[in-house]
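Annotated sample (chain length 214).
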Amino acid sequence: MDETLGNGHVELDAGDIRIGARLRAARKGSALSLEQLAQATNLSRAFLSRVENDTALPRLPTLIAICKALALPVGSLFTAAEESLVRAGEGLPIVPIAGGEVVEWLLTPSSEANVQLLQASYPPGAGSGGELHELDAEVEVVHIQHGRLIISFATGDVELKEGDTLTFRAKEPHGWRNPDPRTTTDVLWVIAPAPWGLRRRAAEAEATQTIQLA
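Output written by the structure step:
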C-alpha cells in the first residue's frame, strides 16, 4: 500500500488482497444500490465504487461499517474460495441404473450436495429400462456430446442429437435410451441438487427447528 489518504482508506498496490467482488456480490444480494449503501454507511458513492473495483481498501473501522450494513461477516471477505478440482480421468466411477456396459463417472465431489455432474457413455441400444423413474432432486440437465439419446416421459419422447441440451424436472418420471444401433452416445448430466442434497437440507432444517424449540 503506497499512499495513505485522508478519507478513511488507502490506495492499493497490485499485490494487495481483493475484496471488492465479494462486497459487490453481497450488496447486490441484499438488493441495495450503491447510493443506498452510501446512505447507510455515511460514505460516498464514489468511494464505495472504488472499493468494489479494488482500487481502494477501507480501513478496518470503515470496512466493519460496510459489512454491518450488508449483514456480512468481515472474516468471510478473507477466507479462501471453496473449490474442488477433478482432473481428466479422475472422476469417480459409479454404478448406473442401466447396468451392463454403461459407464458413468461422477465429476463433482461425492460430498457436494448442491449439484452433481455426471459423464456417461451409453453403448448402442442401451437404456434405463422399461419403467420410468424419478430422482430425489429438483432439476436435471442432459447435454449430448456425441451421438443421440431419447428421453422418455409419460407424455412422449424427446430425441436429442449431438450438441442438444434438455432441462426438465427431476421428479418427472422419465427414462432414456440410445436409439443408434452402431454409435455410442456420450452425455453430460447435471443434477441439482445432488440426489442426497434435498435429504440433507431437510435433516438440517429439522435439526435447526429442534434446537429452536428446545
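Annotation: The longest helix spans residues 197-213.
Annotation: The first strand starts at residue 9 and ends at 11.
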